[in-house]
């Protein structure tokens, strides 16, 4: 199973991000979406699970979005939240992957027996940070993550 991870689009869904996520079985958006049309476009690729980011607060269309979600995909329990600092200190032991956004810094890290993934920002560039998404690959109970730096087309 291939799961696409995207975050911090801030109203900009790049064609390069859509191309990188094509063929995924499920998508996770870790918040700071910006516009509801982004979710519509992502849903055309694959089923989508999404959380509200701090920049989505107060937007009518985003009110119903949860702040965090725990779900199981491919037999792996995943905790999805916008800010890594909002992950509860005591997650259920079954959670093997934590996905967050917010910092715009791509990250794949093993911590306390869990895989922590931040896909970075797929939206407007901030500072000199890369524009990226990530992929989770689940096979036979094993999970691995990969960062995908987006090669932007000059305008």
TrEMBL record:
Q: Which residues form a coiled coil?
A: none
SUPFAM superfamilies according to UniProt? Metallo-dependent phosphatases
The record's listing under InterPro entries reads: Calcineurin-like_PHP_lpxH, Metallo-depent_PP-like, Phosphodiesterase_MJ0936/Vps29
- Which EC numbers characterise this protein's activity in its record? 3.1.4.-
Molecular function terms, GO-annotated: hydrolase activity; metal ion binding
Q: Does the keyword Metal-binding apply?
A: yes
Q: Which cofactor does it need?
A: a divalent metal cation
Q: What top-level branch of life does the organism fall under?
A: Bacteria
| Annotated ranges, domain Calcineurin-like phosphoesterase | 1-140
UniProt entry keywords in alphabetical sequence: Metal-binding
Enzyme class (EC, first level): hydrolase
Q: Which NCBIfam families does this UniProt record tie to the protein?
A: yfcE
What family is reported? Answer: Belongs to the metallophosphoesterase superfamily. YfcE family.
Identification of the protein by name: Phosphoesterase
């Amino acid at each position: 199973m291939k799961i696409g991870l995207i975050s911090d689009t801030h109203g900009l869904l790049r064609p390069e991000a859509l191309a990188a996520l094509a063929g995924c079985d499920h998508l996770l958006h870790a918040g700071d979406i910006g516009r509801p049309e982004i979710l519509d476009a992502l849903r055309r690729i694959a089923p989508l699970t999404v959380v509200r980011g701090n920049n989505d607060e107060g937007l009518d269309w985003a009110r119903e979005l949860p702040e965090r979600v725990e779900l199981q995909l491919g037999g792996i329990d995943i905790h999805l939240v916008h800010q890594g600092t909002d992950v509860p200190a005591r997650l259920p032991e079954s959670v093997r992957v934590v996905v967050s956004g917010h910092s715009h810094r791509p990250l794949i890290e093993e911590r306390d027996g869990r895989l922590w993934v931040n896909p970075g920002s797929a939206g407007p560039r901030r500072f000199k940070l890369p524009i990226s998404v990530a992929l989770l690959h689940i096979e036979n109970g094993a999970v691995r993550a990969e960062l995908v730096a987006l090669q932007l087309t000059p305008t």
